[in-house]
Structure formats: structure tokens, C-alpha cells
Write a sequence for this structure.
């Protein structure tokens, strides 16, 4: 992670909780010049026994800062794989991923862990909360991962307050001490969103965030994402197979046959 | 931070994992118990051995011993005086002990030890193991009236009382004599001599005879000045009676030499310290009967009614190992075959070449109970002067005796091996054998040590096996937690962090298991005797039979160092067992892990 990013993270005001109306996207010209996320010729294939199954056959697309992009495609079109590649959970066979202009897919493991921890927030179809931890602890988990035990304990009060604010914002202020299994699907997803935001990331990567929810709840989740995008200018990349959901985004990228379909 | 939190949460929510460490708990508890008990036994044994053997034993290689122990002690003091607290000469010879019980003769092989009652207590806790409180204060080889311990003073109040000991002492002797006389009066006269044990006595050989003869000549000189010092008042007049009976035999030689002998004995008394005086006075009294041997074929005791009255007199005193005259019975009771007040006969080799067998009667004045069966079954202590006299370990010219060994007690904190090496360098190894008490009991102590070591290895294997249990259950937990691992990785947790979670989990399981084991083990050790009693009550069979070990209680010593090692070892095994599963967890591919259902 190069210095400008770090600076931008720390400089970014806590607009989400404060709901600041004066939030200005960082340095307009530069932002349009360099996309926040860039995929260039991404290739990825999986092995199934002896057979190699190509999933992505050269994907190119850009995500501008503050953009809300949804990636849509039939199941098996590689959209989840693409999101995993963007989120550095997996490495591409070929091609590169750029974040604010800098290549990130070939960074050392520790740097990639750090980017995942601090620049990207992720939410999943199955929420992926840790069952042993309470809602509040789940939201605090990225902070715990980022900080050592000692520094976390020192700033615990402040961090816990941030987490409570975030949970209040997503409407879970009354569920702080509950375990994930005591929450409904929508509540779990909202907790997951709060967790994704705790590190004030640059990009939110959402993998079928409404896939496991009924329509009304799904729309509620989408509304939260929209608000975040509008108020925080948070860059969001959402993967879905549901066109109705995808249309909530600013732009739709269609994946077909391992490549981006020209709109 | 998340590592600690997750460790803690996993620990609290995965009870199955706790099941896997029960074996660790049991292993640790067992090891602590076994080590404490073994250490207790070892310590108890060492203490007892050390109480009997002094720190360093300076021995002669021959049974005849070395001349002038005082001179040797002076030499030793010159070489290593600054380390030495006390010394005492002893004479140690193999011997046969025989006594009568219910008309049958019982014989035991024993170790006959002549001790200097004045200095013996300087080098060990010999007195501590005696049965008469007075003898524990200060050993006396005169038979006590009564007052022997009925309750074993080393065992505590729970031990079954030894009622026979109430009678021990002169009281018992009077009764015994009464019964003996009654028996004799009932037997026909012809049988009497045959049944008399003293009648079969082998006459003393000429060497001893001449020796005794010569010593006899100076008897009055040594005897007279000693009289006022003698504490056993009741014995004094009796002794005079005995002498009076002998006078016709020796009187003629006695008179001309007496003045010179007196002067000589006085010089010896003045030159050497107090012990010389005892040395001189006791043998003088004893020679009476030994000298009588060759002259009267039946010996002085052959006609006890005339010269030796067992009702009023005693033979030289002997302190006898308790197991030579007792049988342990069930429930900690003891069957006494002989007790203080009874007479015994000892047969031992004389100092000449080749050694001849000599016999003498002794009266049991006390019983020696160190609770070390080996010693209790083989030790017989008599005054060193008596033994020197009987064995011919006396230079008739100088009145200076021989000793077979010198017991040396070191000052506290002095390294025995170092002093041993100093002494070994100073004294010729062909003649003297110098060893520490550890050297002497090396095989026994080494055996205990080896048993402990083997037990430890076996028990540690149990914990090791438990380690594999942990390994298996950990793999299960890693599989179960695959998705969580994926989530943590997606949130930016590093490989090392995941590794840390599971290693920490292993460690905390180990801490719980070993901690619980430690607590259980320590509690078990603290209440081991109660537990043994309870088990005995339930099963109806005594778990810890005090008659086997001569301990009333199971001795235990908890060594903090050992406990620390055991717990640390268990922790290490728990951590090692979690290494493989933790590595597997750390290497999980995040995407695969997230997909895992």
C-alpha cells in the first residue's frame, strides 16, 4: 500500500456516522484519471481432476471512485471468482489488478492481508459472521486483527463506540450482545455490513449480499448500500445474478463466457 | 487480540476438546502423585540410611581393623579437620545372633557393630531409633528398669500399641528368670546341663585366652577408679559378687603385678580422653567370664547360680535391630520373640589370622528400629570396648584398641565427595577404604532413582499418547472451523495469526488440562493416606501395609521443580500436538474455506 492511500484513509472524515453533507470526493481530476479498481486481462481457471476449466478468460473493467457497480452473470459465469480476485482472496493466473493505479495482486502476502484488512470491506451471501462472537465483537473483529492485543485493549472504548455507532446506523443498535445464530438473515447481513465498514475501507465488495434474503429484506440491505454510496461516496462492487437487484447500481457489468459483455 | 478472544471462546464452547485433555490431566496427576511418593520414599530411606551411616565411613580393608583409632582420627583431623564435626570409631563384624523362644533356638545372621557410646551420637541419629526415652537422650548399655515405649514414638498416636514393651527391662528379666528356674526345677538334673545353652560353648582359643589373661591382671587397676563414675548403681554390688567368685582363679597372679598395672592404667587414663577410661573399665569387667573359659570347661556361666545371677545381673548390653527379634503381624501389630531384658548369644570371628569363632552372651538393653528393614533385621550394637576385648582387638602393652572403621560426620553444607577425595588422597587405598554414605548405599539409592526414572518415562508416554488424542481432535476442530478461518482471512488475518489461534488454543487446553491435573495430583498427594484408608475400607484389603515398608504413613514430598517440569512437559506436548492442525488451518485457501459448508 503506497503512501497516498494511507493518507487518504486517515484523512477521510468520519462522514458515515456524522452524516456530513460537505463530503467531497478526494481530488476530482486525479480520481477520474486513475480508476479506484482496475482489472486487466484477468484469467483464472480451476482444475477438476485432470481437466482444467477456464472461468475467466481475460476480464477488463474499471471501477471509478465513488461508483456503485454491479457485476451480473449467470451462475458459473465466474462473477464470484472475479470478486475474490478483486478482493485478493485468490490470485489470477494472468492479468493484473490495480488499486488506485498501483498493482496489488502481486504484492507479498502480508501486504495483501493488510489491504484486505484496511482498504476493502467484504460482505457475503452467507454473511460469514463468526458464530463464537457477539454482534459487537464480530464488527470489531477487523480492528482486533489490525491491532495487537495491547493497543486494541487501550483503544477499546473508542473502537467499541465506533462499532456501536455503525451498528446503530445499520439498525442493529439493540442487538449488540447477541450471537449470530440469534439474529435473522437481514440482521446478520447488516452486522456484516457494519463489520465491512469498521476499518473505513475504500471499496466495499459484496458477493450476492441479498442472495439469501427475501425480497423486502434484500431491498433494505440494498438501500443501506445505496445510502453508503451516496453519503460516503463509498465505492461498491456488487456481484449478483438478479437483474432487479443489479439495476439498483450506477452501472452494470455483464459477465458472459469468462469475459465482460460489451453493453 | 482476536487470537486470544477466539481461543477463549473456543475453549468455552468446545467441550469435546476438553475430553481430549482429560488424559493429559490424568497423566499429569499420576506423575505428580508417583513422583511425590517416590521422592517421599527416597527421602525417608536416605534419612534412615544417613541416620545410620555417617557422612563418611573410613574403613579398614581387613576384619582385624587398624590400630589406634584415636591416632587415625587425629590424622584425619589434620587432613580435613575444617570440614569435620564429629568422629567415632566403630568395630563392624559379621556375626550370628541366637536366642531362645518357646524352647527353640532362633538364629539370625547379623552385622555386629561395636560403638563408642560417648561419640556415636555425634555422627548420626543412632539414638533416635531406640525404644527407651532415656536411651534416646543418651545411650546406656545398662538394662533399664522399665519405661520402654509402648507406642512407637516414630509412628505417631495411631500406631497399634506394643503392650509387651510395658514389661520390658528388669521387670521382664525377673519374670524370665523366675520362669526359667521353675522350668529347671521341674526337669531332671541330667537334662538340665544338656539343655543349658552355655554348656555347648566352645572354649576360647589360646590367643584370646592369653590376651584376656593379661588384661585380667590389670583389672583391679582399671576397675577401681572407674567405680564412682559408673551410673548403673544396681549393677555395682553385683559386679563385685562376680569378681569375688573369680578371685581364686586369678588372685595369685594379680597381686605382684598390680602396682605396675595401676600406674600404667593411670597413665593411659591421663593421656587419652574419657573414652579410654570406659574402654578400660568395661573390658576389665568382661574378661572375668571370658578368662574363665579355658580354665573352667563350663565357663563362668555354666554355673549361673553361683557366679552369675541373671535375676540381678546382666551380661554386657546389646542394642538389637528390632526385626531380628520380632515378627510383624497383621494390622501393624508386632510379635516379640525377645525383648529388652532377655539374653542373646552372639558368635563372631576373632581378629586373629585365620579368624576363629568366639561366642559371648549379651543382654538386650534396647531395640533399634530405624524402619529400614535391611538395617533393623541385621544390626546389633554393643559397646566397642566389649567387642574389642572379645575379638582380641587390643594391644596388651599399650591398652590401645583396634577399630575397623571410623564414622565421620561433616559440618553442614560440606560436600562429602570432596572430603572423601581429600581423605583418599591422604590414606593408602590398600589399607583404607573411604566412602561416603551415598557410595555405601549407592545401589539401593540408584535402584530407587531408576524406578522413578522408568515410571516417569512410562507415565510421560501416557501424556504423549494423550498428545495424539489432542492431535486428532484438533484436526476435527480445524475442519469444523474451516469457514471461520476463511472469514478471518477475508478480514485480513495473516497466516501467522491463524496459526497463533490454534497454537494458543492448544496451549490453553494444555493449561487447563495440566492445571487440573496438577490440582488433582496435589490434592491426591495431600490426602493420600486418607484415600488409601478409604480404598482399603471399600475393597477390604489394605492398600498400604505398614508392615511391608515399616512406614505408618505413605511418605510424600512435593518437589516444586518436579511439578513444574511435569506441567511444562504436558504443556509442550499439548502445543506440539496442535502444531500440525494449526499449520493446516493456516494454509487453508481462503476461497475454499469460505465455500466450505
Amino acid at each position: 500500500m503506497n503512501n497516498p492511500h494511507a493518507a487518504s484513509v486517515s484523512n477521510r472524515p468520519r462522514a458515515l456516522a456524522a452524516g456530513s453533507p460537505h463530503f467531497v470526493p478526494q481530488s476530482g481530476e486525479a480520481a477520474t484519471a486513475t480508476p479506484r479498481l482496475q482489472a486487466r486481462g484477468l484469467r483464472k481457471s480451476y482444475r477438476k481432476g485432470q481437466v482444467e476449466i477456464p472461468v475467466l478468460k481475460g476480464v477488463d473493467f474499471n471501477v471509478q471512485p465513488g461508483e456503485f457497480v454491479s457485476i451480473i452473470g449467470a451462475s458459473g459465469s465466474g462473477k464470484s471468482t472475479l470478486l475474490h480476485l478483486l478482493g485478493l482472496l485468490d490470485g489470477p493466473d494472468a492479468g493484473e489488478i490495480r488499486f488506485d493505479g498501483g498493482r496489488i495482486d502481486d504484492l507479498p502476502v502480508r501486504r495483501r492481508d493488510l489491504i484486505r484488512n484496511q482498504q476493502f470491506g467484504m460482505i457475503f451471501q452467507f454473511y460469514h459472521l463468526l458464530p463464537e462472537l457477539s454482534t459487537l465483537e464480530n464488527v470489531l473483529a477487523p480492528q482486533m486483527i489490525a491491532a495487537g492485543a495491547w493497543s486494541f485493549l487501550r483503544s477499546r472504548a473508542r473502537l467499541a463506540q465506533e462499532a456501536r455507532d455503525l451498528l446503530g446506523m445499520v439498525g442493529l443498535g439493540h442487538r449488540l450482545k447477541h450471537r449470530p445464530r440469534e439474529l435473522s438473515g437481514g440482521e446478520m447481513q447488516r452486522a456484516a455490513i457494519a463489520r465491512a465498514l469498521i476499518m473505513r475501507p475504500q471499496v466495499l465488495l459484496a458477493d450476492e449480499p441479498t442472495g439469501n434474503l427475501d425480497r423486502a429484506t434484500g431491498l433494505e440491505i440494498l438501500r443501506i448500500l445505496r445510502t453508503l454510496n451516496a453519503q460516503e461516496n463509498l465505492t461498491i462492487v456488487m456481484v449478483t445474478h438478479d437483474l432487479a437487484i443489479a439495476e439498483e447500481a450506477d452501472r452494470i457489468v455483464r459477465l458472459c463466457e469468462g469475459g465482460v459483455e460489451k453493453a | 487480540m482476536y487470537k486470544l478472544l477466539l481461543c477463549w471462546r473456543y475453549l468455552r464452547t468446545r467441550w469435546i476438546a476438553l475430553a481430549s485433555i482429560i488424559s493429559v490431566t490424568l497423566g499429569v496427576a499420576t506423575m505428580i502423585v508417583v513422583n511425590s511418593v517416590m521422592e517421599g520414599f527416597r527421602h525417608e530411606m536416605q534419612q534412615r540410611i544417613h541416620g545410620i551411616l555417617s557422612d563418611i565411613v573410613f574403613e579398614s580393608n581387613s576384619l582385624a581393623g587398624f590400630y589406634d583409632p584415636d591416632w587415625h582420627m587425629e590424622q584425619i583431623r589434620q587432613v580435613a579437620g575444617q570440614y569435620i564435626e564429629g568422629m567415632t570409631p566403630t568395630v563392624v563384624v559379621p556375626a550370628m545372633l541366637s536366642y531362645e523362644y518357646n524352647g527353640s533356638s532362633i538364629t539370625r545372621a547379623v552385622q555386629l557393630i561395636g560403638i563408642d557410646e560417648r561419640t556415636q551420637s555425634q555422627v548420626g541419629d543412632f539414638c533416635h531409633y531406640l525404644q527407651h526415652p532415656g536411651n534416646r537422650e543418651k545411650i546406656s548399655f545398662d538394662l533399664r528398669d522399665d519405661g520402654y515405649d509402648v507406642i512407637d514414638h516414630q509412628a505417631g498416636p495411631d500406631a497399634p500399641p506394643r503392650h509387651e514393651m510395658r514389661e520390658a527391662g528388669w521387670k521382664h528379666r525377673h519374670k524370665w528368670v523366675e520362669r526359667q528356674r521353675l522350668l529347671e526345677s521341674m526337669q531332671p538334673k541330667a537334662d538340665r546341663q544338656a539343655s543349658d545353652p552355655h554348656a555347648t560353648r566352645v572354649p576360647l582359643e589360646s590367643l584370646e585366652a592369653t590376651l584376656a589373661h593379661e588384661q585380667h591382671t590389670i583389672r583391679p587397676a582399671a576397675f577401681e577408679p572407674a567405680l564412682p563414675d559408673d551410673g548403673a548403681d544396681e549393677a555395682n554390688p553385683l559386679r563385685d559378687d562376680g569378681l569375688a567368685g573369680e578371685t581364686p582363679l586369678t588372685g595369685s597372679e594379680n597381686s605382684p603385678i598390680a602396682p605396675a598395672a595401676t600406674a600404667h592404667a593411670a597413665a593411659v587414663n591421663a593421656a587419652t580422653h574419657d573414652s579410654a577410661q570406659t574402654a578400660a573399665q568395661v573390658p576389665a569387667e568382661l574378661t572375668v567370664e571370658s578368662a574363665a573359659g579355658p580354665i573352667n570347661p563350663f565357663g563362668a556361666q555354666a554355673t549361673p547360680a553361683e557366679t552369675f545371677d541373671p535375676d540381678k545381673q546382666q551380661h554386657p548390653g546389646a542394642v538389637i535391630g528390632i526385626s531380628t527379634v520380632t515378627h510383624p503381624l497383621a494390622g501393624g501389630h508386632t510379635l516379640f520373640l525377645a525383648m529388652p531384658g532377655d539374653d542373646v548369644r552372639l558368635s563372631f570371628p576373632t581378629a586373629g589370622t585365620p579368624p576363629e569363632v568366639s561366642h559371648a552372651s549379651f543382654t538386650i538393653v534396647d531395640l533399634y528400629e530405624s524402619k529400614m528393614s535391611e538395617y533393623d533385621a541385621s544390626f546389633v550394637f554393643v559397646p566397642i570396648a566389649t567387642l574389642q576385648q572379645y575379638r582380641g582387638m587390643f594391644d596388651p602393652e599399650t591398652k590401645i584398641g583396634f577399630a575397623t572403621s571410623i564414622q565421620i560426620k561433616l559440618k553442614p553444607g560440606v560436600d562429602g565427595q570432596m572430603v572423601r577425595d581429600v581423605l583418599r588422597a591422604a590414606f593408602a587405598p590398600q589399607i583404607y577404604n573411604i566412602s561416603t554414605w551415598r557410595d555405601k548405599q549407592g545401589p539401593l539409592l540408584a535402584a530407587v532413582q531408576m524406578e522413578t526414572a522408568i515410571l516417569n518415562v512410562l507415565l510421560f508416554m501416557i501424556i504423549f499418547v494423550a498428545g495424539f488424542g489432542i492431535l486428532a481432535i484438533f484436526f476435527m476442530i480445524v475442519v469444523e472451523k474451516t469457514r471461520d478461518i476463511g472469514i478471518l482471512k477475508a478480514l485480513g488475518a495473516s497466516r501467522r495469526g491463524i496459526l497463533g489461534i490454534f497454537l494458543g488454543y492448544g496451549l490453553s487446553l494444555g493449561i487447563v488440562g495440566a492445571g487440573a491435573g496438577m490440582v488433582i495430583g496435589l490434592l491426591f498427594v495431600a490426602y493420600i493416606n486418607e484415600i488409601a484408608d478409604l480404598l482399603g475400607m471399600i475393597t477390604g484389603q489394605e492398600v498400604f501395609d505398614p508392615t511391608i515398608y515399616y512406614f505408618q504413613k505413605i511418605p510424600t514430598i512435593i518437589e516444586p521443580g518436579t511439578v513444574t517440569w511435569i506441567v511444562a512437559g504436558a504443556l509442550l506436548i499439548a502445543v506440539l500436538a496442535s502444531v500440525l492442525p494449526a499449520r493446516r488451518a493456516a494454509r487453508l485457501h481462503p476461497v475454499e474455506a469460505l465455500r466450505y459448508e
In short: Chain B has 22 helices and 13 strands. Residues 199-305 of chain B have pLDDT under 50 and may be disordered. The CA atoms of residues 186 and 192 of chain B lie 10 Å apart.
